Protein 1
Amino acid sequence: MTQIQHAHGTRASDSAEPAPWWRQAVVYQIYPRSFADADGDGLGDIAGITSRADYLSALGVDAVWLSPFYPSALADGGYDVADHRDVDPRLGTLDDFDTMLAALHARGIKVVVDIVPNHCSDQHVWFQEALRAGRGSPERERFVFREGTGPGGEHPPTDWLSAFGGPAWHRVADGQWYLHHFAPEQPDLNWDHPDWREDFVRTLRFWSDRGVDGFRVDVAHMLTKDLTEPLPSQAELDAMPKDGLHRTIDRDDVHDVYAQWREVFNSYDPPRTAVAEAWVSSDRIPLYASETSLGQAFNFDLLIADFDAEQFRRVVTHNLELAGRTRSSSTWVLSNHDVVRHATRYGLPAPERRPDGEPAVKHGMEWLRSGGTDPRLDRDLGGRRARAATLFMLGLPGSSYLYQGEELGLHEVADISDGERQDPSFFRSGGEDVGRDGCRVPLPWSREGVALGFGEASPHLPQPSWMADHAVEQQSGVPGSTLELYRRALARRREWQCEEDLEWLPTGREDVLHYRRPNGWEVVTVFGDADHAVSRPVALLSSDDAVGSRVVPPQTTAWIAPSRTD
Ligand code: GLC
């Protein structure tokens, strides 16, 4: 039995208009401080991105998404933004930004920037003013300041916990406390205050006017909060249904903010796009992906899944169905700057799962805690499965988000000493959560040199020696390398892309998935350990290079050319 899944509310062919660029784009995430260092200070920068524009073009991506490059004290890798409308001087200037934008646009690559609206840096001018202005001042109303509890107000207003560990309140010199869902250096904004609403509109216009094509919205499910007294306890918060009326998370009224942003986006031609980072239950994702809200939302289900046919199929079916509830397209992600790289996850034993199917611990966390020794990482198996998973993903309808370095088959770096760590989750959890530095190590561009071609100075996070084997220079033009596989896959994908539908074909095996796109492009993935025969020869592309054969080897994805190209 086959089943055709229509992934979207309107088919591209329903209208004469070409589909908007973002619907099936390949978006490459750049973590700017670790991509390329042009000025030789050990920190990646905007000019570094410009210098690698040809690399991005040859890779064949449709867009890049830049993680924050704004002025920041780097308490959370730049997600503590001190000024939303400038470039961190260590990364360059606004002129450098314009040059980069022009270089990427000249190569047909769109640019999406990260916007961080739930919190800012404690160095932000409005927060500094709030500190100076004192309790009861209008300046403090832009944030969430409260009196403490207990004698002299020495205890926090509530027992709420921050996402990085420790209390979610921080006490200032005059004795008041402010709310920070993340690090203490990231005070939450009061979204009931009109100043922030106006200020963010200004920011969106500032970047849109410069020519930025879209925005990735950080923790989009937070922002608005019902903080009427009495405030609930953490246990009460945890027990509240997440139905849109929760006090602090995924509230329906956050979409009032996004409706205003939507007007801004749609006032440009072409409309600016947005994608929500919303960690919410999947039935609430369509709210963020709707045309009156942000228009697209990340789905992290593949990123959380094991390398397992049944899980992958369930994730795809469910998310195409969800995308169909809006007029958006689905998104797919295997790696980003917050998780252990997928080559490494797939080379480690699958994590234990709770009864609800969620992983009991973050995949790879124990291995990271052991400094990369226990359990043993099977690098080859992980890399092989990662290539197969990537080709599986790139064949799906919708847009795929790639994270810098995955095209080099990079593994997570586990051997970073405590003194070199930067991630606040490491410090705030007392080392219990090792943090995310291991996927943020600067990219290896060449085999030699103090920073493997990343720059001229020792990099801000140490590169282990094995990274040299993954260098761009090492893989470029080498048949069978992961980099060449990505390049060929992105080129074929562009050629073969078609309507956003998918049909599952029977395989007779539980560990093999086979789907067909409307133009006949077929994707077969063998998750298990035995070869799988297919009726047509595997054309042009396979994660194992078994091109031209009628057999798909274990842990491999093969693409079968479309019978017709649209
Ligand atoms: C998002 C970012 C993460 C950051 C957090 C706080 O989840 O992806 O890197 O630490 O928001 O801004």
Note: Residues 9-13 have pLDDT under 50 and may be disordered.
Protein 2
Amino acid sequence: MSDNNVQIFDTTLRDGEQVPGCKLNTEQKVIIAEQLDKLGVDVIEAGFPVSSPGDFRSVEEISKIVKNATVCGLTRSVENDIQVAAEALKYAKKPRIHTGIGTSDSHIKHKFKSNREAIIERAVKAVSYAKSFVEDVEFYAEDAGRTDNDYLARICEEAIKAGATVLNIPDTTGYCLPSEYGAKIKYLKENVKGIEKAILSCHCHNDLGLATANSIEGVINGARQIECTINGIGERAGNTALEEVVMILKQHPYLNLDTNINTQMLYGLSQLVSDRMGIYTQPNKAIVGANAFAHSSGIHQDGVIKNRETYEIIDPKDVGVTASAIVLTARSGRAALAYRAKNVGYELTKLQLDEVYKNFLDFADKKKEVDDNDIHQIIESCKLYKEIISA
Ligand code: KIV
Ligand code: ZN
């Protein structure tokens, strides 16, 4: 892996699947995992094997079919979890155990009724135990976003000594500002002894709508893995959206950070996940929403018809969308109407367009969106159009 390669760790099938009411069965998970592997993700977190027989089976089946990506299973810092995960991952070409524990004072006090030293001991034991099964062990410091940086650095250092290859720094509650999260990653890069032996990973939740911004700030400050889900799905407000971080890095080449993702598959994957999970994607969702490449106001439509780049920073084909859409509404201008009319077979003269446009506005005021059938109807009913055609 080169220094400027950012590993994409997809957790659609684990953290993403924690969306209430969206549980997938093993067959559905296998189909999605196959596509994620083709998409080029580096790691697929396939589930939490100890949590249920279904999750165990999914991790096992996904391990059998994935060809390129590392397959990862989540555990708590509990021996039985780790042993069960190792068993579920036994067919994986590249297995990874993802183990960890809450490190913020809130988690230590309320969840574990413990203290900082005892938590370090549990973390070290868990990493060492996981290491007895697999070479690749990722340690997560849950609620790292609200964990004191000195203590976080200490526990990360001990996890590396115990054999962790990746250190996951989750902003579990989606609390951090991008500047804080970036500073946290920088602090760990500069203060953890042995940090060169491990990769720092961003795992950001979206409670304040900052998951994508925080992950990008993390990699700018030295992290080299982003944990994310297709469409940003996940518990509460969700996780970092895979399609967003990948396209941000692609569209800002001066950051000098690449991924291995085949971006032309992004739209298809988004549709697949939305369909299988039964979660509708909001139309204005960045990159993959139905309106992400649709233009409806006259000024924008005129610009896009003249040159797409006037109002689009991404070529829709780069993310698997066939074309930009010129949507006809009452806010559309003559340029858009002429363009759409031409697409359905009418080459209108200036005079004809003036008349058709008047009728179009009357129609569009009554209907939210004017479709191809409506265009035929509007044009065929125009007096001037008929006169010229029959002349
Ligand atoms: O958000 C989080 O802290 C997690 C960990 C379990 C990795 O999902
Ligand atoms: Zn999470």
Note: Residues 350-366 form the longest helix (17 residues).
